[in-house]
From TrEMBL:
EC number: 2.6.1.42
Name of the protein described by the UniProt record: branched-chain-amino-acid transaminase
InterPro entries assigned to the protein according to its UniProt record, in alphabetical order: Aminotrans_IV (IPR001544), Aminotransferase-like (IPR036038), B_amino_transII (IPR005786), BCAT-like_C (IPR043132), BCAT-like_N (IPR043131), BCAT_family (IPR033939)
Pfam families for this protein: Aminotran_4 (PF01063)
GO biological process: isoleucine biosynthetic process; L-leucine biosynthetic process; L-valine biosynthetic process
Molecular function GO labels: branched-chain-amino-acid transaminase activity
Organism of this sequence: Treponema porcinum
Entry similarity comment: Belongs to the class-IV pyridoxal-phosphate-dependent aminotransferase family.
Taxonomic path: Bacteria, Pseudomonadati, Spirochaetota, Spirochaetia, Spirochaetales
Residues carrying N6-(pyridoxal phosphate)lysine: 184
Function description: Acts on leucine, isoleucine and valine.
Top-level taxon: Bacteria
PANTHER family from the UniProt entry: AMINO ACID AMINOTRANSFERASE, BRANCHED-CHAIN-AMINO-ACID AMINOTRANSFERASE
Keywords, comma-separated and alphabetical: Aminotransferase, Pyridoxal phosphate, Transferase
Pathway: Amino-acid biosynthesis; L-isoleucine biosynthesis; L-isoleucine from 2-oxobutanoate: step 4/4; Amino-acid biosynthesis; L-leucine biosynthesis; L-leucine from 3-methyl-2-oxobutanoate: step 4/4; Amino-acid biosynthesis; L-valine biosynthesis; L-valine from pyruvate: step 4/4
């Protein structure tokens, strides 16, 4: 036993099979008690609703080692709540919040030797997900489901320092008005694949999506919410019904207000305003904040004054404070940190 012998600091952001995963099955209107198993293979009908009609949703969070050697995870209760919204929207059964949180903790505990050490920059990525598993051919929800949690160690998001990225304003939409943009459904990612591959081919790191009804207001990227900083130091973040409610963004907003006494506005952001901001960044579990240096709007380049060399001062301070809270170096608000004992 003991820690796995991995080159933690050089791990990619990829999947590595770990020792155990959690599986619960839903049948005849109820969840079974669930268990931790060794087998990493899923066996389902060739006609499973997930395979034919993409009835699936997921979550993402992390576990890590704090400075004083505790193993913790961050706000899993919010992932449970968000998955509940996703399930309801996709006609899937809810896996109860208390059980979700316990299953996350149990799965981390069962793979404790895969939790990267403090200071390595690596973390244990935790992926809860659910799918319709029995055969359906007419379009309707499945009657049977699996809820699973897998964990995999992932390397530091920024290897060799934080580097600002260039994004483009996208012509393709990731969400529809009154669609599923606000839930973590696999289908939102399937339909973003073409566009992200095309963005990369054209030299852009990400697509910045605008509101699908009018293509006027900034929404988010394929997998992260967006933050802006104004000249007078305010934090501004887009408000829209088709944005996925990022837990990182909601936490950063609270950190900005309560720890750094920064004024925060959540409002519509017209794309004409982009050149007024001094800093811009993406936020999500993977990178916490990753800075944007340049936005390409159909050939017109908007250069953020924070530049292409480093993250601007306000976003840096925000990132440092939240990662300090997560790593146990700064006192966390009540209920944010769950210790794995
Ligand atoms: C998961 C996700 C995010 C980030 O959410 P976090 O809870 O902060 O990890 C942002 N946008 C989209 C579209 C996502 O799927």
């Amino acid at each position: 036993m003991g820690k796995k012998n991995l080159d933690w600091a050089n791990l990619p952001f990829g999947y590595i099979k770990t020792d155990r995963r959690f599986v619960a099955n839903y049948k005849d209107g109820a969840w079974d008690s669930g268990k931790l198993i060794k087998d990493d293979k899923v066996k389902i009908s060739e006609c499973a609703c997930v395979l034919q009609y993409a009835q699936t949703c997921f979550e993402g969070l992390k576990a890590y080692t704090t400075k004083d050697g505790r193993i913790v995870t961050f706000r899993p209760d919010l992932n449970a709540e968000r998955m509940e919204s996703s399930c309801k929207r996709l006609e899937m059964p809810v896996f109860p919040k208390e059980r979700f949180v316990k299953a996350v903790i149990d799965t981390i505990k069962a793979n404790i030797n895969w939790v990267p050490p403090f200071g390595s920059g690596a973390t244990l990525y935790v992926r809860p997900y659910m799918f319709g598993s029995n055969a359906v051919i007419g379009v309707k929800p499945a009657d049977e489901y699996q809820f699973r949690i897998l964990v995999t160690p992932v390397g530091p998001y920024f290897k060799g320092g934080v580097k600002p990225i260039t994004v483009r304003i996208s012509d393709i939409d990731r969400a529809a008005p009154h669609g599923t943009g606000d839930i973590k459904a696999g289908l939102n990612y399937a339909m973003s694949l073409y566009n992200i591959v095309d963005a990369h081919k054209n030299g852009f790191a990400e697509n910045m999506y605008t509101d699908p009804a009018t293509h006027t207001y900034i929404e988010e990227t394929g997998g992260a919410n967006i933050l802006f900083v104004t000249k007078d130091g305010k934090l501004v973040t887009p408000k829209s019904g088709s944005i996925l409610p990022s837990i990182t963004r909601r936490s950063l907003v609270q950190v900005a207000k309560d720890y750094l006494h920064i004024e925060v506005e959540e409002r519509q952001i017209n794309k004409n305003e982009l050149s007024d901001f001094v800093e811009c960044g993406l936020c999500g579990t993977a990178a916490v904040i990753s800075p944007i240096g340049k936005i390409n709007d159909h050939g017109k380049e908007i250069l953020l004054p924070s530049g292409m060399e480093e993250m601007g001062p306000v976003l840096s301070k925000l990132r440092e404070t939240l990662t300090g809270i997560q790593m146990g170096e700064i006192e966390a608000p009540e209920g944010w940190i769950y210790e794995i004992k």
